[in-house]
Amino acid sequence: MFRRALMATALLFVLPLAACGQGDAVGSADAAGELNLYTARHYDADQQLYRLFEEQTGVKVNRVDGNPDQLIARMRTEGANSPADVFVAADAGALWRAQEAGLLQPVTSEALTAAIPANLRDPEGHWFGLARRARIVAYDTATVRPEEVDTYEEIASPRFRGKLCVRSSDSVYNLSLVGALIEAWGPEKAGEWVRGVVANMARPPEGGDRDQIRAVGAGVCEIALTNSYYFIRLASGEDAGDRALTGRVKLAFPSLAGQGAHVNVSGGGVARHAPNRDNAVRFLEFLTTAEAQTIIATANSEFTVANGVPDPAPVSAWSGFTAHPMSVTAYGRRQSEAQSLMTAAGWR
């Protein structure tokens, strides 16, 4: 019995490492010139950033991939022995959960504070936004007028009964959006909106954001909730069919409480027990440089986050919208409320 228990305990620590795949080995805690990155971003563009950071600094980047909850659980299991230096996630709510779990440490950096607007970072420096994306509406120009989708209220209105496509409620992007609505409107109005969304669904939630956009193009629905960068990728990609689709399907940037479109961030923070803390701070600062921000925006179709760094083409064609000034720290605080409202309404 003891032997089986010992083996099970060993597997708990071995399996997560094996799941990382080739090239995800983590450096030792006292290794010089290394950075151990735990990342929930899985974009090809990021590989270019890691190579550039290595070339400019000589610091070797060791990467562990996973979804944010897996990485948070792993860091908690590793405790004070965790080799993680930086935790990166594609949603402010996930960054907040890592902070609440005590897995991130506050950082004081003049470069980060100067580069990142206050509403796009934790006020105590536990994490910083590194790229922006808007959660907005793709609509069929043949059946929908732009003014019919210029507020978030309209998405849930009777006008679109049975005409909305949206992904599942466990999508962190939807959770953060509903969290923002709770913050702006209060739970009663946000709950009404969630019930309206469920009533408006053209089909049960399925697929990712690109599937929702393509469903609009196929006539399955007239509008869809999507992150901006998914649409921009289709519009500027190599697939002629996708480009043709975005000739008919367009983006609307609804306003929340008259203050602009809901914006979320990808971001990162320094791990609480980072063995290479200086390299971790250096890496985050690197990601806010004009060169790195331009790579992120160009290759992944996200909007830049650093002050004074303009959006390059093709993203610049969509960057003239007004972004809501709400602090993204609200999304994490509100996610449990958001999940409760969505579950109660039958948004599966």
What can you tell me about this protein's structure?
With 348 residues, the protein is of the alpha/beta class. 45% of the residues lie in helices and 14% in strands. It is built from 14 helices and 8 strands. The protein has helices at 2-19, 44-57, 68-78, 92-100, 110-115, 152-155, 172-185, 187-200, 209-217, 228-236, 240-248, 277-287, 290-300, 329-345; strands spanning 34-39, 60-65, 86-89, 128-140, 164-165, 223-227, 249-252, 263-270. Strands 1, 2, 3, 4, 5, 6, 7 and 8 form an 8-stranded mixed sheet that branches. Helix 7 (172-185) packs across helix 8 and helix 7 packs across helix 14. The longest helix is centred in the first third of the chain and has 18 residues, at 2-19. The chain is globular and about 55 Å long. The two termini are 41 Å apart. The model is unreliable at 1-32 (pLDDT under 50).
